[in-house]
Fold this sequence. Notes:
This protein is α/β, with parallel strands linked by helices.
Amino acid sequence: xxxxxxxLITESNPSSYISESFRSLRTYxxxxxxxxxxxxxxxxxxxxxxxxxxxxxxxxxxxxFAQEGKKVALxxxxxxxxxxxxxxxxxNTGGLSAYLRGGASSKSIVRHGGLELSxxxxxxxxxxxxxxxxxERMTELLEELKREYDIILLDSAPALNYxxxxxxxxxxxGVILVAKHGRTKREDLRKxxxxxxxxSATLVGIxxxxxx
Length: 212
């Protein structure tokens, strides 16, 4: 497994209580949505604001699923401030933005992250990210990934700052909201939940991050 830092606690210290928490979350997700279809399951992780830790969370959930033998793809859909590549020590070249603009094939943007895990970095930051994430090419990419992977986890820009998460939510099998303990406001979480419901998305659950 490639690793630039120690954010991948599920890989660097699988016996820790934090890793066990991710395994518990994995079990919950599997019971709620995974295994209900013949093809792969697509889940979106989003948060009301930046800094809630959803990118670190999505990486560790992905590793946890890969550790039990699932074929996993992580896609960085935060085209305003992509960061998933940093966790895995990858270059942020090409990536999702290049594919959505039509300059790259779906196969060329996938990076191997170790185990049965693949990563699609965000690539260049885009001012018109919402236009591209809501395009037919995004739908086509997810359909292709569902044919190849068991679990597809999508990272996104903060839901209250950008429309991106609302556009992506309707393409998924479920949404997990990430809140940071002591920081995320209850009202912001309620607003984000309403936005996901308006997008006809299925709310899988709310995860409270950094609870001591």
